[in-house]
Amino acid sequence: MSKQSISSTTGASDAGVETMNSFAGKWALITGASSGLGVEFADLLAAQKVNLVLAARRQEPMEKLASNLHSKYGVDVLVEAIDLASPGAAIRLKSSLDAKSVAIDILLNNAGYGLHGDFLETPIERTVDMIQLDITALTELTYLFGRDMATRRSGYILLVASLLAFQAVPSYAAYAATKAYVLALGEALHDELRPHGVIVTTLCPGHTATGFDAAAGATASAILRLLTMKPRPVAASGIRALLQGRATVVAGLSNKIAAFSNRLTPRSMQRATMRRIMGS
Asked: What are the TM regions of this chain, as residue ranges (predicted)?
């Protein structure tokens, strides 16, 4: 773990995000901060003068990111190298930050991964590990830090779900189910915690160029490759929605259309379509 000191130059942030400065001076915890969306979340928030806690398994890329953000924006950055899929990891992370007197104002629950393949062909140990990270750790972190936010009557929580949360997905059965849980949890907590001054927003990205396919053991189909979004606008849409106090945001117009279309089609048709699109 390391801490980067303050003093440096500021940088410009993305259009639509730079005018919203209500996060300035706060502390944000970003899980899954060593790559993909986590890196983009970190840069966008640091550009708004948000101090950061980066949490993931791989320390080296986070140390490099912390150094870059310090030099670019002059914010405080803490690096917490931790395997959030391990039992009790959320409590250990919370205890570590409490010991440093770091109160988290913004929680970005971004850590997670998927597994591609038929359910019975995937070792159950891998599925359980995925569920531990995608559901259990996310739930524990939301509870631990959300409780503090509610006590202070101020806070923001972003949960990263997926476009796959809106329907069952053969070949991603367990992963899509974890994201359906995240979506349902986030929407419910949006209503539960708002009276306590805490905003909960759920971001649902579609296929994004983050290395997800390689980690899941999948090859993107031609359709997915056409629909792939870059991570920067996806992350920006999540932060923008959080600042606006929205319950849910689906990143990208084509993904919004896909999510809405599920209201109009039978679930059997949804499964067949997703098998063709995601099953490669």
From this structure: 156-175
| Residue at token pair 């999540």 | 238
Which single residue is written with the structure tokens 């929205």? 246
Active site residue 49: no
Is 100 catalytic? The answer is no
Torsion of CA 180, 181, 182, 183, to 10 degrees: 50
Measure the N-to-C terminal CA separation of the chain; round to a whole number of Å. 40
pLDDT tens-digit series, residues 195-214: 999 999 999 998 876 766 56
User: Strand 106-109 and strand 27-31: pairing?
Assistant: parallel
If you search the block for the tokens 């949490």, which residue do you land on?
A: 55
Torsion of CA 190, 193, 197, 198, to 10 degrees: -60
Catalytic hit among 179, 181, 230, 256? 179
Question: pLDDT for 42-95, tens place per residue?
Answer: 999 999 999 999 999 999 999 999 999 999 999 999 999 999 999 999 999 999
DSSP state of 228: P
Structural domains for the chain: 15-278 (3.40.50.720)
Residues counted in the chain: 280
Structure tokens at 202: 């759920």
Q: How would you classify residue 36: left for phi > 0, otherwise alpha for psi between -120 and 50, otherwise beta?
A: left
Q: Nearest Cα to 8, choosing from 38, 43, 49?
A: 49
Which tops the pLDDT comparison, 13 or 225? 225
Strand ranges inside 66-217, DSSP E: 77-81, 106-109, 155-160, 198-204
The secondary structure of 245-266, three-state, reads CCCEEECCHHHHHHHHHCCCCC
Q: Are 189 and 141 in contact (CB under 8 A)?
A: no
